[in-house]
Amino acid sequence: MSIKNEAKTDEVSVEEVIRLLSRLNLRITPQRIYITKIILENVRRHPSFKEIYSIVKKEMPSIGVSTLFNTLKLLEKQGVISLFEYEGETHIDLPHPHVNVHCINTGKIIDVEDEESMRKLRELVDILRKNVGVEPIRTVVIVQARC
After folding, report:
1. Domain shared by 7 and 74, yes or no
2. 72, 47 in Cβ contact below 8 A?
3. Is 111 helix (H, G, I), strand (E, B) or coil?
4. Interval 97-106: pLDDT, tens
5. 81 in the same domain as 58
6. Is 87 in the same domain as 137?
7. Where does 51-97 show beta strands of DSSP type E?
8. What angle do CA 125, 130, 132 make, to 5 degrees?
9. Under 8 Å between Cβ of 57 and 64
């Protein structure tokens, strides 16, 4: 059972995540709720682990790195978010395949989800399947650009 099977879009609410955790018989702690809220509010910005930890630490100073890490891994496993490594940092993203553009001027990572980009991404995935024998589980493409 995962949120992927239940959510109508890739973006889910804190309430949906709480219901999922409850059905999985996982503890619903204030820390998990707050971390989930912060992640869902910021996911489209592709924040790094460090950024999320800094935000969460302001409200909950006693929270540990392992609590955040474990919550991120739980949310990733349940299809709520996707994690990817870029330039030595773990970033948080929406779980569906799309193209990310990293602006080297601003440092921002921006989603590109127009129809043409998605068609090309599907073609790339098909090439990987047919010619390399790779079945991508999650596709993260990052292009650097000046913006």
Report:
1. yes
2. no
3. strand
4. 778 888 888 8
5. yes
6. no
7. 82-86, 89-93
8. 85
9. no
